[in-house]
Design brief:
98 residues, mainly alpha
């Protein structure tokens, strides 16, 4: 059965649905997910063996950074943006992700 592809939504639309934001926050705070995230980060991180080979080490560091970025970005989706700013760059939908 083919996977149904859904178009991405804008961040503004995401944050308008407070129920989804709260639901994601609840999921991310579950102990089992936090443990799984820690395990994946530990596995993806560089090891003594990978430090011996610069190419392998670079690949491991890239994977590790990818895991960290993905989990950090998910967490940022649980924090409502501050709309009290008058900075025009705040209108860009990606500025909340640092």
């Amino acid at each position: 059965m083919p996977k149904k592809v859904t178009p991405p939504i804008t961040l503004e639309r995401w944050f308008r649905d407070l129920q989804k934001v709260e639901e994601l926050r609840d999921v991310l705070t579950k102990d089992s997910l936090q443990t799984a995230i820690s395990v994946l980060k530990e596995i993806a991180g560089p090891s003594f063996a990978t430090l011996q080979n610069p190419e392998t080490n670079s690949q491991r560091l890239a994977w590790y950074a990818g895991y960290r970025d993905a989990f950090n970005d998910l967490e940022k989706l649980t924090k409502l943006p501050d709309h009290n700013t008058s900075n025009p760059s705040s209108l860009n939908e990606w500025t909340h992700i640092n």
